[in-house]
Automatic annotation (TrEMBL):
Pfam families for the chain: DUF2061
Organism of origin: Idiomarina piscisalsi
Record protein name field: DUF2061 domain-containing protein
TM helices/strands, residue ranges: 7-25, 31-50
Start and end residues of each DUF2061 domain: 5-55
Length: 72
């Protein structure tokens, strides 16, 4: 559940940043909104899977360390 909440909060922050940057660069609210909807959505999904990969890597690392300790 924590991962989902973290992902949503990241998405909201990313939306605000993406909109602001495109709007300030172009002066176009519609373009800012379009980019702000598409780019963070794709990035947020990528972030979710990025976190899952890191969790899997951490779990493997922990298992390897534990096995090394047991085998001495």
């Amino acid at each position: 559940m924590k991962d989902a909440v973290k992902t949503v909060s990241f998405g909201i922050m990313h939306f605000a940043i993406a909109f602001s940057v495109v709007w300030l660069m172009t002066g176009d609210v519609v373009l800012g909104g379009a980019v702000a909807l598409i780019e963070p959505l794709v990035n947020t999904v990528g972030y979710y899977f990025h976190e899952k990969i890191w969790q899997r890597t951490d779990k493997r690392r922990t298992t390897t360390v534990r096995e090394s300790t047991l085998l001495g």
